[in-house]
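STRUCTURE REQUEST FORM
Protein name: RHG30 protein
Source organism: Aegotheles bennettii
Requested output: structure tokens
Priority: standard
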Amino acid sequence: DVAGTGTPLGTPSPALGGDGPGAHPAVPQVLRSCTEFVEQHGVVDGIYRLSGVSSNIQRLRQEFDGDGCPDLRRDIYLQDIHCVSSLCKAYCRELPNPLLTYQLYDRFA
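Status: completed
Returned output:
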């Protein structure tokens, strides 16, 4: 699940914000943690273009699914910063609705 919400990665959840009446959009913990970490430690050329080691990405995903917010300062993630950025990309790719909505797609394309 995403950050202890009981919601699998890429699935909408009221705990993650929504667009209903009185809802306050929120940035999911997985995106917030990963992007903050990349901003602090991963300002390198191609950070979102290059992929991380697959096993590290899966380990990180499992840690977010289980404990909620893993310690990204562990050596495994500091040595493979691309696994953190790869998880951000995977999260966005697995959303049920794209970030660029279908209604606005032609305006962006």
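Reviewer notes: The chain has five helices and no strands. The chain has one domain: 27-108.
Form closed.
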